[in-house]
Amino acid sequence: MASHSESVSLKPGTWLQCHHLEFCVLETVLAVAETGSFRKAGSLLGIDQSAVTRRVQKLEDILGVSLFERSVAGARLTPAGWNFTARSREFARQFLDAVRAAQSAGTAVSGCLHIGLTASLSRGAFREVVARFRTQHSDVSLSFTEADFGELKTSLSHRSIDLIGGAGEPTSEHGDMMLLTRAPLYIAVAGDHPLALRCCVDWSDVVAMSFIVCADLAGQTIHDYIIRRNSDFGHRACIKVHRVRRDGLMNLIGLGLGISVVCEQWCGVRYPNVMFIPLRVKGKAETIPFSLTWCPENDNPALRRFLSLAREVAKVDLMSFGPS
User: Fold this and answer.
1) Which has the closest alpha carbon to 211: 236, 233, 176?
2) Which fold has domain 19-105?
3) Distance, CA of 174 to CA of 112 (rounded, Å)
4) CATH topology for the 112-180+288-321 domain
């Protein structure tokens, strides 16, 4: 099987077989595939049916295969046509994305910033940075991707995103990093749970209770944290793992199926019958580090402005927590 790098090789002669192929021809074939009719495709594109027929025949001659079965009822894709249009539709999408990105980079606006998230933006210092950046740089287009840290690292290395915000200590392993804040931890319980009316809870209050966590990477981090904290009290943790996402886990907590540990970013969203109670360990507020990660080679001006603002917020936020 050919490697990915071979399939997109730009060696001399690689694209010679396609040098007569215009993008409008590809657009026409996709229109026929979507409408199932040469006439309807022509109406969709604003051209005569005869022009549609000529374009499709031109492409079939270049490829050496028939893409459609013609009949009085319309046009149906052949097996070769199914394969070609499926691949071409993805190519067209990526090509148009590349054109828009290039056009955006060449205009007078400040460009785009693509941000990766491992947690909600409902609350916390990261939300504050995004909100302030949007106010101060309204001409920058923001886009967001929420995924596990491993998936986001891959996107970061391929420059699909500019920045990752997530829990963890700053290290140089994944690129440049900075500590943005120390996010407070909370215990999530059902509204009718015995702890629901407490203003705060100590770990000693929950050490013997049943916890539930997600099966994803974030859930594994919480799982390990619970085990580590319980070991400090010489108690074996009772933890059940559910294959649900964040919202699903909160619904299970609201139904009284267990409690869990969450960071501040989760607490800005209301969930049915769920209460968030500040967590303390030996009387001290429990926090976890929240960091930003980016590639040092990334020269996106919007990223630099975002990081400058983040440093301002981090300085104030970390001072409020004092020494860790």
Assistant:
1) 236
2) Arc Repressor Mutant, subunit A (1.10.10)
3) 22
4) D-Maltodextrin-Binding Protein; domain 2 (3.40.190)
Distances (CA, A) of 60 to 25, 54, 67, 260, 265: 10, 10, 7, 60, 54
Buried b (16+ CB within 10 A) or exposed e, 108-118: eebbbbbbbbb
Maximum Cα interatomic distance, the chain, rounded to a whole number of Å: 81
Could you tell me the residue ranges of all domains in the chain?
19-105, 112-180+288-321, 188-284
Q: How far apart are CA 188 and CA 198, in angstroms?
A: 12
C-alpha dist (Å) from residue 258 to 101, 120, 244, 253 = 46, 21, 14, 5
Burial (CB count within 10 angstroms: exposed 0-12, middle 13-18, buried 19+), residue 293: buried
Pairing relationship of beta strands 163-167 and 287-294 according to DSSP bridges: antiparallel
Backbone angles phi, psi at 156, to 5 degrees: -65, -45
Bigger pLDDT: 282 vs 105: 282
10 Å CB burial of residue 277 (0-12, 13-18, 19+) is: buried
When pLDDT is averaged across residues 126-140 and rounded to a whole number, the result is 94
Q: Report the distance separating Cα 256 and Cα 276, nearest Å.
A: 14
Q: Tell me how far apart the alpha carbons of residues 57 and 65 are, in angstroms, rounded to a whole number.
A: 10
CATH code for the domain defined by 188-284: 3.40.190
* 112-180+288-321 against 188-284: fold identical: yes
Which of 58-62, 185-189, 314-318 reaches the highest mean pLDDT? 185-189
